[in-house]
Amino acid sequence: MSFHAVKVLLLVLGMGWGLFLGAQEGSSAEDTDPPGDKAASEAVQEIIIRPEGNMMKYAVTEFTVKAGQKVRLIMDNIATNAAMIHNVVILQIGADIHQVGLAAIKAGAERGYIPDMEEVLYHTPLAKPGEKTQVEFIAPPPGDYPYICSYPGHFTLMFGTMHSVE
After folding, report:
1. Which of 31, 54, 95, 155 lies 20 to 30 A from 116 at CA?
2. Global pTM?
3. Complete edge-to-edge strand list for the sheet that includes strand 62-66
4. Residue 15 has what pLDDT?
């Protein structure tokens, strides 16, 4: 075999081996997006809200999310007092916190103190001291959304604002 024929054979074998290895990586039409685009579309913004110790007060009284982005809201109840059961209830823009808070009391423990009202958009389950609960949702259109703790009586001191921006 001539030197030229050996070079061509090695080139063909090398190309074939490269194609074989490339096929083994499982590429498909779904994998053609640039890596950054796919990661951005699947990104989840995580927000952690804690009480201030054993007080009926959120340590975080406002946070900002991007409209249309997936959000994971976590209630991390670091309280140690058994009476300090908390959640986070996000309400419609302009909702009357007092009205929703009173309706939460009427909803009762069997409903987790979550009233059946259109003002309630999203909520974490109740978290006992030392527990974490969470909810995932798609951030609503731009605006300022109030949030409260709906455990009986807590809404008067535990409230804040979620800012949804473009």
Report:
1. 54
2. 0.75
3. 62-66, 159-165, 143-148, 89-91, 120-123
4. 42
Q: What is the mean pLDDT of residues 76-101?
A: 98
Distances (CA, A) of 27 to 16, 18, 19, 104, 156: 17, 14, 12, 51, 55
Q: Is beta strand 44-49 parallel, antiparallel or unpaired with respect to 70-76?
A: parallel
Fold of 37-165: Immunoglobulin-like (2.60.40)
The domain spans of the chain are: 3-32, 37-165
Alpha-carbon distance 135 to 10, whole Å?
Answer: 58
> What are 12-56's pLDDT values in tens digits?
344 443 433 344 444 333 444 445 445 555 699 999 999 999 999
Q: Amino acid letter at 23?
A: A
Q: CB under 8 Å to 66, separation ≥6 — which residues?
A: 45, 139, 164, 165, 166
